[in-house]
Amino acid sequence: MGYQHPDNETIVQALKDTKKIAVIGLSDKEYRTSYQIAKEMQDAGYRIIPVNPMVDQVLGEKAYDSLLDVKESFEMINVFRRSEHLPSLAEEAVKTDAKIFWAQQGVQDDEAYEYLKKHDFTVMMDMCLKVAHAVLMK
Length: 138
Known about the structure:
Layout: H1 8-17, E1 20-24, H2 33-43, E2 47-51, E3 57-58, E4 61-62, E5 76-79, H3 86-93, E6 100-103, H4 110-118, E7 122-124, H5 129-136
Parallel strand pairs: 1-2, 1-5, 5-6, 6-7
Antiparallel strand pairs: 3-4
């Protein structure tokens, strides 16, 4: 079938249901898109959980090597990795309590999408979290 964007109602509900966002590939460099978007989401009231084995902390939060190393619960996974990493990240995602998987603009994979949908995830791909939040959560 291939990836289909959810309707705006579904996206708004996902944003309302989220308190904590695990951000895969979050950089500690302020000029990187992942940092800028995570900072905006933090400023909007979401708790950010960095997932990146190359950093110790980002935005004042302890970083984890992988999703499975995060011991606290979170509702959303936001991905800043290339599309070819999505299938393995989807496999990790289903082992967490999260039910929302958001791959940033330019990142999409049909295999990962089908797998996540089979496991009852709300899935957004090839869509900027910050832009969607700014437009839909006015």
